[in-house]
């Protein structure tokens, strides 16, 4: 589902994604209709404008997260220095894309989100990292990482590399269901709402800068 206050943006994204054989856009609506429409259509992925005049994207994100079957939500923005980015991250957004994202890359990014991965526009990444890493002391992240098992820590490193559940399963020779269980445990232990937050906590703790073995213990 595409949520944006501008009909031209909605239509453009819908045409690009509908052209992919394995993607169906079930709805393209303005913000005020987003939560009700998502409840009716149950999309797997929502691309959500972060700034809209009728209702802001953060409010819509909260409503989507409270649904019985919440979709994966990536925020759309025209700003590479949007002050709402860190707020959306803490609210559980799975990614951030600029509206001028290469159209050829868009279907791949949606597939990544549907498969449990996270996506960050390269222009937005630095804003996200800076805003989130300024939110608290590094010791907090280290304590959170310390709660993880060795296998969970290995999964977290791969989450930090942007791998989807299927990619992690292939890399670690595990079943996808097992990876999903590990990811759920990681999010619970780190007390975060999504994979992007978990990856940034790993970055803050220095886990992603450490050398690691090719296979998990």
UniProtKB/TrEMBL annotation:
<dbReference type="InterPro" id="IPR000792">
    <property type="entry name" value="Tscrpt_reg_LuxR_C"/>
</dbReference>
<keyword id="KW-0804">Transcription</keyword>
<feature type="modified residue" description="4-aspartylphosphate">
    <location>
        <position position="49"/>
    </location>
</feature>
<dbReference type="InterPro" id="IPR039420">
    <property type="entry name" value="WalR-like"/>
</dbReference>
<keyword id="KW-0597">Phosphoprotein</keyword>
<protein>
    <submittedName>
        <fullName>DNA-binding response regulator</fullName>
    </submittedName>
</protein>
<feature type="domain" description="Response regulatory">
    <location>
        <begin position="1"/>
        <end position="114"/>
    </location>
</feature>
<dbReference type="GO" id="GO:0006355">
    <property type="term" value="P:regulation of DNA-templated transcription"/>
</dbReference>
<dbReference type="GO" id="GO:0003677">
    <property type="term" value="F:DNA binding"/>
</dbReference>
<dbReference type="Pfam" id="PF00196">
    <property type="entry name" value="GerE"/>
</dbReference>
<dbReference type="Pfam" id="PF00072">
    <property type="entry name" value="Response_reg"/>
</dbReference>
<dbReference type="InterPro" id="IPR011006">
    <property type="entry name" value="CheY-like_superfamily"/>
</dbReference>
<feature type="domain" description="HTH luxR-type">
    <location>
        <begin position="141"/>
        <end position="206"/>
    </location>
</feature>
<dbReference type="GO" id="GO:0000160">
    <property type="term" value="P:phosphorelay signal transduction system"/>
</dbReference>
<dbReference type="InterPro" id="IPR058245">
    <property type="entry name" value="NreC/VraR/RcsB-like_REC"/>
</dbReference>
<dbReference type="InterPro" id="IPR016032">
    <property type="entry name" value="Sig_transdc_resp-reg_C-effctor"/>
</dbReference>
<keyword id="KW-0238">DNA-binding</keyword>
<keyword id="KW-0805">Transcription regulation</keyword>
<dbReference type="InterPro" id="IPR001789">
    <property type="entry name" value="Sig_transdc_resp-reg_receiver"/>
</dbReference>
């Amino acid at each position: 589902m595409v949520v944006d206050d501008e009909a031209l943006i909605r239509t453009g994204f819908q045409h690009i994604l509908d052209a992919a054989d394995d993607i169906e856009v079930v709805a393209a609506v303005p913000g005020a209709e987003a939560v009700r429409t998502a409840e009716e259509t149950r999309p797997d992925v929502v691309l959500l404008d972060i700034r809209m005049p009728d209702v802001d994207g953060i409010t819509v994100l909260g409503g989507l997260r409270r649904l019985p079957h919440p979709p994966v939500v990536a925020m759309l923005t025209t700003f590479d220095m949007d002050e709402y980015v860190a707020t959306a991250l803490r609210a559980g957004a799975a990614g951030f894309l600029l509206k001028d994202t290469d159209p050829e890359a868009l279907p791949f990014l949606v597939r990544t989100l549907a498969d449990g991965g996270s996506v960050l526009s390269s222009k937005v990444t630095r804003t996200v990292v800076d805003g989130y890493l300024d939110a608290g002391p590094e010791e907090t992240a280290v304590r959170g990482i310390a709660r993880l098992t060795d296998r969970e820590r290995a999964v977290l490193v791969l989450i930090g590399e942007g791998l989807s559940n299927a990619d992690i399963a292939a890399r670690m020779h595990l079943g996808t269901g097992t990876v999903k269980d590990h990811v759920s445990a990681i999010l619970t232990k780190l007390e975060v709402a999504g994979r992007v937050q978990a990856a940034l906590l790993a970055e803050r703790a220095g886990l992603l800068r450490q050398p690691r073995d090719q296979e998990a213990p």
